[in-house]
């Protein structure tokens, strides 16, 4: 089995570090960190990750705007994207899903459950 490569786009250093540690330690995945939407778009185009974890609320280019740009680009539109969001109400989650993302993971998340949540959403085997 090839190692999964996951792009993590989040403006909070601590969140990126927790996610990176969790995915590398629990699943052995390679993590590509990005601190902004525009940086994430550049990395997605160049590195072609297997999936993207994308924070919804970021300055400048927020998650939905970043996702729209990824979807508009033929080199990145096929990459499954999961929103990381503090919005936990069902109606808010549904609005995000309606944009076309693969799923949502609520913040704060439990680091030890993150891999299982990603695998469940993307139908990857752990």
From TrEMBL:
Response regulatory domain sequence ranges: 5-122
Keywords from the named record: Phosphoprotein
Listed InterPro entries: Bact_response_regulator, CheY-like_superfamily, Sig_transdc_resp-reg_receiver
Highest taxon in the source lineage: Bacteria
Phosphoprotein keyword on record: yes
PROSITE patterns: RESPONSE_REGULATORY (PS50110)
Pfam name, any one: Response_reg
Positions where 4-aspartylphosphate occurs in the chain: 55
Gene3D superfamilies: 3.40.50.2300
Any one biological process term the GO annotation gives: phosphorelay signal transduction system
PANTHER family, A to Z: CHEY SUBFAMILY, STRESS RESPONSE REGULATOR PROTEIN 1
Designated name of the protein: Response regulator
Source organism of the structure: Chroococcidiopsis cubana SAG 39.79
């Amino acid at each position: 089995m090839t190692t999964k490569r996951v792009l993590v786009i989040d403006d909070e250093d601590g969140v990126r570090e927790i996610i990176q540690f969790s995915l590398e330690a629990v699943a052995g995945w390679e993590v590509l960190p990005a601190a902004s939407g525009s940086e994430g778009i550049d990395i997605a185009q160049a590195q072609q990750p297997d999936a993207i974890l994308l924070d919804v609320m970021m300055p400048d280019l927020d998650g939905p705007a970043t996702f729209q740009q990824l979807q508009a680009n033929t080199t990145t539109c096929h990459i499954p994207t999961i929103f990381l969001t503090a919005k936990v109400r069902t109606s808010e989650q549904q609005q995000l899903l309606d944009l076309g993302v693969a799923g949502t993971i609520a913040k704060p998340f439990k680091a030890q459950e993150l891999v299982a949540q990603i695998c469940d959403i993307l139908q990857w085997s752990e």
